[in-house]
Amino acid sequence: MVYFRCLFVTSFDSSVISLTFSFVTELYIYNFFFQVVIASKVIASKAWTLLPSALRPDRNSLFSVLLTSRANSTAKKYINEIKKFFVWCRSRQISVQIPFSAPVAALYLFNLDQQLRSPASMVLVHAALKWLHSFTPHDGPNPLDNACCRSMIECAKRTRSLPVSKKRPVDADVVKSIIDRFSAECASLKDLRIAALTSLGFAGFFRFNELANIQPNHIFFHE
Q: Whole-model pTM?
């Protein structure tokens, strides 16, 4: 961290220094929480403790690799949601042990659903907790794959998602109304061009890029 601070001070102006150092500090905090708090809980899980001490991986090396299983921006969001989950567990005197039981995971998702969280945020929490449980190589199923947990997500999607607004298809009547509007006797050359492109595109099933690339030598007039 000191090295980064010196490098930024000698290379950039004050505004860039503040922004960049803030980003590095924030990333350092998230990595610290991952490496220390989450990693200690994962290593303490039964799946890892059953290994002989000589075979247990170095915690920092292992979780440096696991952290790169997601993009930095995604991992940052996941870690933030995992922190909230740990706080919720402690506030309800639930032991923070990985893997968590499926009822605990379902109860947390239900609690979020009662707060009317958006479907996208519910999906994010579900993905974050599923990512957390993927760090323990136990033989049992991931508790976030439980049917009850999946039902919580589907419930949020069905009850709070915006309805799909279907667009009216472009039919012959729509094309005729466009041509009638832009091909009047007093129409300008620009208006006539719109009418011609509309009728040509509809009759020939052309995409816009195909219409836009039409050259004069592509057009022939037949008497």
A: 0.55
